[in-house]
Design a protein that fits this description.
- The complex is a heterodimer of chains A (601) and B (579).
- Chain A is α/β, with parallel strands linked by helices and 601 residues long.
- Chain A has 22 helices and 12 strands.
- Chain A is 63% helix and 10% strand.
- In chain A, the strands form 3 sheets. In chain A, strands 6-9-10-3-11-12 form a 6-stranded mixed beta sheet, with helices on both faces. In chain A, strands 2-1-4-5 form a 4-stranded antiparallel beta sheet, covered by helices on one side. A two-stranded antiparallel sheet of chain A has the order 7-8.
- In chain A, helix 9 runs parallel beside helix 12.
- The radius of gyration of chain A is 35 Å and the shape is elongated.
- Chain B is an alpha/beta fold.
- Chain B contains 21 helices and 10 strands.
- In chain B, helix 19 links the parallel strand 7 and strand 8.
- In chain B, helix 2 runs antiparallel to helix 10, helix 6 runs antiparallel to helix 9 and helix 7 packs across helix 12.
- The chains are: A alpha/beta (601), B alpha/beta (579).
- At the A-B interface, helix 1, helix 5, helix 6, helix 7 and helix 9 of A face helix 2, helix 3, helix 4, helix 5 and helix 7 of B.
Chain lengths: 601, 579
């Protein structure tokens, strides 16, 4: 959309750069995005300037071209005045045209490549930031982040590749053109001098409003993306409740808002291009009339002594449109600036969120990470965690080392998941310590630690790809036989028959194509594949499974527990019944109530 | 190309005034711009000649300055009006198009023909539709004004010097050809690549964000990052190529305008020397040649996106067709009679239903018959994957069986109007879909006009009242993506509250208490029973506690439904979870 708008507006707001340079002196505050953007594109600025210079030279070569043409025409009309042979003039203009084309393409290429480089750098760093983040960090909707990665960073490209080169050309090209006009007639130059800066002043007033409107518009665009993704995901519910029509209306309504905010931007943009037209048309008209009356002999001012010649007049009239042309290009690219800055605001906002990550401390990758022992015991001592004011876990103690099946019971929302997040190092602990083999888990390097645990989460995330690729995430050296065995263990090997292609068959995003129970069991198979796991953690592993299948899963967990400790959060009596140890989590306090025998009592 | 024309035609039909008016208005400023330069050039030459012939005024200066003023005025204001009109109409059209595309996506989902992934589907709807704003603004308008005005100019200039006019036209035509070619087939593959890379990046980043928990445990984070990086590389590469093409196109237009000036002048000068043209028209030709290529500027700016637009038009058109088909189907259904639920008759009946996921796969429902008398309670049990949920989906018309008939309240499901079906029957599902919005809005999905009091009542019945009351924003509490912030059980209860707001005649419960702890499950079941008193209930379950109060229990196995006698045998009890 943004690139479309840039082209539509073609002649839009004007010399804001000058205005904002002035504003800077007056101390107007820049937006966070603006400051960030300047920093972000600094490495490419040199290239951009070089490209702009080549393009600027190309534009200035119009001066000799115009002079050649003016002399040739004048020579034909007044054989006694100065003149040039038409053929010679044409040939020279064509040669210059070739040179101009070459310079322009070269310069443009440099700028475009610089923009591409900057874009690439930003995208890469966003990806690394996202990767290095604690998974427990709350983030905006994934669709929103995707739209930052795809749309917003892309919007910075045109800002760098189109807008900035034009901006740096703007300070040179019109001035030189003005000087060339002044060489012929000071009066014509005076006209341009008056009209030229008037354009920016008028447009600056309009342009500030354009920026505001444009921000709003990008916001609506992002909202629309979020709304659509959300509605598409919940399509089934919408159909069940007959709310599809209403969603269509919502979408249309939001589309209507988008239209209005876009039109607000565009009307302003059009207004400023109208101002540009006004001054450029007026300058052409006045110059033409001045030149005409001077040639008639009615007016004899504006030159240095000798009267204006026809060649001089033609030359001036040909320079005038070109004088406004950089302004026009600037106006056309101005939307790129607005879009770039608005996009930068969004990026900065996300970055702030990434930096505010409370759990960063726990994430600090140990520089001198200790190698993880092959065996050991997990000990949790006086662990307390609170979220805001609410205490989630208080003074939790737990030790896990021997192969056994340990169950943590407790109603939903009592902190079972928090406990697991702490063990995984996703959450930092307020108080207390989690250690493995006598050392805090952080000393092994969090990535190492996390990857030494097998997890079966409550909402297992499956990825678009083959069954094989999904399973191998746990153990990339596992061969097909091992994969099949793991699927059998998790009682989900019927998938091999159900999904065309077996292990090479595709599953969709969100595990689409699998029932919830199948996803759960598939994730269990994945968990089982990690042979070198020090610990297996399962969150409600039997939810959504029928009795027979649930029994199979319990058996599988039991089998796994023969080799390593398995920690299960559940309230399914079948799992509780097979546990070696049962703990209850109530209001943040963990109490051991014994093993199977204890439960039966 | 055909799809593009089709969509342009739709626009023309929906906004005829803006379409034709805008098109005509677009000519005004363009013509005025050329005329302004032409008259100025002519004026100077004429005055110079007049000055040379020593005082003999052969030229009316007032006429010239009047026309200069007129053209300047038309140029300035014509453009403003034209743009506001065409843009506004285009965006209004796009808003409608967008919801039509959404309808199409939903329709595809209902036909089961969709293998779309939601992130892809999203980028389709948003970016494809947005691409289409260019069809009118950047294809139809500039292309028609460039060709028509160039033609018009040539006709007028023909009177002065045919030879110079031909030169002018030839260079302009050459420019158009270069641009059209750069916007043509060669670009099409490029555009497709760009779309693919964009879609890929969107999906990869979405996966990375949503799956970061499992990814960091299973070490896929780095892999996922690399996959996203690959998409980034491809995207940037294609984008760079596109930018370079755009930049070259603009350079071509600029260079072409210089060539046009030079060549036109040369031919004009030759014409004059041959005595075929008056002297005073020489500058006129040169100045028209200066102004004419301006018509190509907007084409140069948009040529790079033509093929993108045509690809988007193809996809949008196909979605619109799906949407229209489903609308036609719904219209055909809309006159269906309302289902009636009289005591003693069947509220729901299925006859000989067969269903398979794919034509090749084995049928998971193989001739299922079932009749639910009004106000009866039936439970279907069976092993995981036996097709219980499929059966529930078929009853709710979320899946279409390959054969067989379903009747609801005596009306054939196939011909039942959508609103009547949804008012009569609801599924409380296995998978709760929670929208990224407030609790109130999530509930009002079921009934738009429900009052706050009714929402509270529904929450109370579903056992969620305390939880919502404990939150600071109460009903206005926002729920995260995919319902983050609500546990699985809480989400299920929210779905129950939704269904309660609907208050349908037939309730289908698909694994209602899965994932809930014992105490909560009992509460949910109790409120479910209270809600459904006197209603027709079909439960799909494998929990013993859900079987209580059932009038009838059926087992679904090997694609067949078999009634079992109550009380249940131990063999069947063994298959159920007895908690």
């Amino acid at each position: 959309m943004t690139e479309n708008l840039a082209d539509i507006t073609e002649l839009s707001d004007e010399d804001i750069a000058r205005a904002s340079a002035g504003a800077k002196k007056r101390g107007r505050k820049k937006s966070a995005g603006q400051i960030w953007l300047q920093d972000a594109v600094r490495p490419e600025m040199k290239l951009v300037k070089r490209g702009a210079m080549l393009q600027g030279i190309s534009e200035l070569l119009w001066i000799p071209q115009a002079a050649l043409l003016a002399l040739a025409i004048a020579g034909l009309i007044d054989p006694h005045g100065p003149g040039l042979d038409p053929f010679y003039a044409t040939a020279s203009i064509l040669v210059l045209a070739v040179i101009r084309h070459f310079l322009r393409v070269q310069g443009g290429g440099i700028a475009v490549r610089a923009a591409s480089k900057a874009r690439h750098r930003l995208e890469t760093s966003l990806l690394s930031n996202l990767t290095n983040l604690s998974p427990a960090t709350e983030l905006p909707a994934s669709g929103k982040i995707a739209s930052i990665a795809v749309d917003h960073i892309q919007a910075i490209g045109p800002y760098l590749g189109r807008f900035l080169p034009i901006q740096s050309r703007l300070s040179l090209v019109p001035l030189v053109l003005l000087a060339s006009v002044a060489y012929v007639s000071w009066f014509a130059a005076l006209c341009l001098l008056v009209f030229g800066p008037l354009v920016p002043v008028f447009m600056a007033i309009v342009g500030i409003r354009a920026k505001k409107a444009s921000d709003q518009q990008l916001g609506v665009l992002a909202d629309m993306g979020g709304l659509l993704l959300d509605r598409l995901r919940g399509m089934e519910t919408l159909r069940l409740f007959g709310a599809v029509k209403r969603s269509e209306d919502d979408i249309r309504k939001l589309g209507g808002e988008f239209r209005m905010s876009t039109m607000r931007v565009l009307r302003i943009a059009f207004l400023s291009s109208t101002a540009l037209e006004l001054f450029s048309a007026a300058a052409i008209a006045i110059t033409a009339i001045y030149v005409g009356f001077s040639l008639l002999g009615d007016w004899s001012f504006g030159t240095y002594g000798s009267p204006l010649t026809l060649a001089g007049g033609l030359f001036v009239l040909m320079i005038v449109p070109e004088y406004f042309s950089p302004l026009r290009a600037y106006a056309a690219a101005y939307h790129d600036r607005a879009a770039g800055i608005a996009a930068a605001d969004h990026i900065v906002e996300l970055q702030k969120q990434l930096e505010n990550d409370d759990h960063k401390g726990s994430l600090a990758e140990g520089i001198d990470a200790v190698p993880l022992p092959a065996t050991g015991a997990l000990t949790i001592r006086s662990l307390s965690v609170s979220r805001g004011q609410r205490a989630i876990l208080s003074d939790v103690n737990l030790s896990l080392g021997e192969p056994e099946l340990v169950v943590v019971k407790g109603p939903s929302g009592t902190g079972k998941s928090t406990l697991m997040d702490c063990i995984l190092g996703f959450l930092s602990v307020d108080q207390g310590q989690i250690a493995y083999g006598g050392l805090p888990i952080t000393s092994y390097g969090l990535t190492n630690w996390q990857q030494s645990i097998s997890v079966l989460s409550q909402n297992p995330e499956l990825f678009h790809g083959t069954l094989r690729a999904n399973l191998r995430r746990a153990n990339d050296s596992a061969d097909d036989a091992a994969l099949t065995e793991a699927l059998k263990l998790a009682a989900v090997d019927e998938l091999l028959a159900k999904i065309p292609g077996g292990l090479s068959g595709q599953i969709g995003e969100d595990g689409k194509g699998l029932s919830l129970g199948e996803r759960r069991r598939f994730a269990l198979a994945r968990a089982a594949l990690r042979k070198d796991a020090r610990l297996i953690i399962a969150d409600e592993p039997t939810a959504d499974l029928d009795g027979a299948t649930a029994q199979k899963v319990v058996t599988a967990l039991k089998t796994l527990a023969q080799n390593k400790p398995v920690l299960v959060a559940t309230h399914d009596p079948r799992v509780v019944g097979s546990a070696d140890r049962v703990l209850t989590l109530k209001e943040g306090v963990l109490v051991e109530i014994g093993g199977r025998e204890g439960e039966e009592k | 190309m055909r799809s593009s024309l089709r969509i342009i035609w739709l626009l023309q039909k929906e906004e005829p005034l803006a379409f034709w008016g805008g098109l005509v208005l677009a000519f005004v400023p363009a013509i005025a711009g050329i005329a302004l330069m032409a008259v100025s050039g002519y004026f100077i030459t004429a005055t110079a000649l007049a000055g040379l012939s020593a005082g003999a005024v052969v030229y009316s200066t007032s006429a010239a300055s009047n026309s200069i003023r007129l053209y300047a005025f038309l140029r300035i204001f014509g453009r403003y009006v034209e743009r506001v009109i065409t843009h506004d109409a285009t965006f209004r059209f796009l808003a409608n198009l967008r919801s039509g595309v959404f309808r199409g996506l939903v329709a595809r989902e209902s036909n089961g023909t969709s293998s779309q992934r939601s992130a892809t589907a999203l980028s389709r709807v948003v970016s494809d539709v947005d691409q289409l704003d260019g069809l009118f603004l950047r294809l139809v308008v500039p292309l028609s004004s460039a060709t028509i005005i160039t033609g018009l100019t040539l006709v007028i200039l023909w009177n002065y010097s045919p030879m110079a006019s031909v030169a002018l036209g030839a260079v302009q035509a050459a420019g158009l050809t270069v641009l059209a070619r750069s916007g043509g087939h060669r670009q099409k593959a490029q555009a497709r690549k760009l779309n693919t890379a964009r879609d890929a990046l969107r999906v990869r980043v979405s996966d990375l964000v949503r799956g970061r928990r499992d990814l960091s445990v299973y070490g896929g984070l780095e892999q996922q990052r690399l996959a996203a990086l690959k998409a980034v590389n491809q995207l940037d590469e294609v984008q760079e190529q596109n930018d370079l093409t755009d930049m070259r196109n603009q350079a071509v237009v600029s260079t072409m305008s210089q060539v046009m000036v030079a060549v036109t002048f040369l031919f004009a000068a030759y014409s004059y020397q041959q005595g075929q043209m008056e002297l005073k028209h020489i500058a006129l030709f040169a100045f028209v040649a200066l102004a004419l290529p301006e018509l190509l500027i907007s084409i140069a700016n948009s040529a790079g996106s033509w093929s993108k637009m045509s690809g988007a038009a193809d996809r949008v058109r196909s979605l619109l067709t799906s949407g229209q088909d489903s609308e036609a189907l719904q219209n055909a259904r809309s006159s269906s009679e309302a289902p009636s639920f009289e005591a003693g008759k069947d509220a729901l009946s299925l006859k000989n239903i067969t269903f398979a996921y794919t034509p090749k796969a084995a049928a998971i429902l193989d001739g299922v018959d079932l009749a639910l008398p009004t106000a009866s309670r039936t439970v279907i049990i069976g092993p995981s994957g036996a097709g219980k949920s499929t059966l529930a989906a078929i009853v709710a018309r979320l899946q279409t069986p390959q054969s067989g008939s379903v009747k609801i309240g005596g009306v054939e499901l196939n011909s039942l109007a959508e609103d009547k079906l949804r008012a009569a029957l609801t599924v409380v599902g296995q998978r709760t879909q929670i929208f990224h919005s407030t609790i109130a809005e999530n509930l009002r999905v079921a009934r738009e006009d429900a009052s706050d009091a009714e929402l509270w009542e529904a929450l109370a019945h579903a056992g969620l009242k305390e939880l919502v009351e404990s939150r600071q924003e109460k009903l206005e509490t926002r729920l995260g993506e995919g319902g983050l912030g609500l546990s699985g059980g809480e989400g299920r209860r929210l779905a129950l509250a939704r269904a309660y707001l609907r208050d349908p005649e037939i309730w289908v419960a698909d694994e209602l208490t899965e994932g809930l702890d014992h105490a909560t499950a009992d509460k949910v079941l109790a409120s479910f029973r209270a809600m459904t008193r006197g209603k027709t209930v079909l439960m799909v379950s494998h929990r013993a506690s859900e079987l209580e109060c059932a009038d009838r229990v059926l087992v679904l196995e090997d694609g067949k439904l078999n009634e079992v006698t109550l009380p249940l045998s131990d063999e069947i009890k063994g298959r159920l979870r007895d908690d």
